[in-house]
Specification:
The chain is mainly α. About 50% of the residues lie in helices and about 0% in strands. It has helices spanning about 5-20, 35-55.
């Protein structure tokens, strides 16, 4: 009976790092509910919108880029 081939040996060596990995620790605090994340995202969008509206930019300013097809 023959021993393992070079390909089998390489495949075995390739899987060793996966076998050595540890499971990640469980988080200490629970995740925030989806409603909290949604309300935070909506607030962030509103804040960004007010910041953008506060900027005064003349309409005749050329864009700094051009789309080319």
């Amino acid at each position: 009976m023959r021993g393992p081939t070079r390909r089998q040996f390489a495949a075995l060596l390739g899987t060793l790092p996966l076998a050595a990995q540890e499971n990640p620790p469980t988080p200490a605090e629970p995740k925030a509910p989806a409603a909290d994340l949604l309300s935070k995202a909506v607030d962030t969008v509103r804040e960004n919108g007010t910041k953008l509206r506060a900027m005064n930019l003349p309409m005749d300013v050329e864009p700094a880029f051009r789309f080319q097809a």
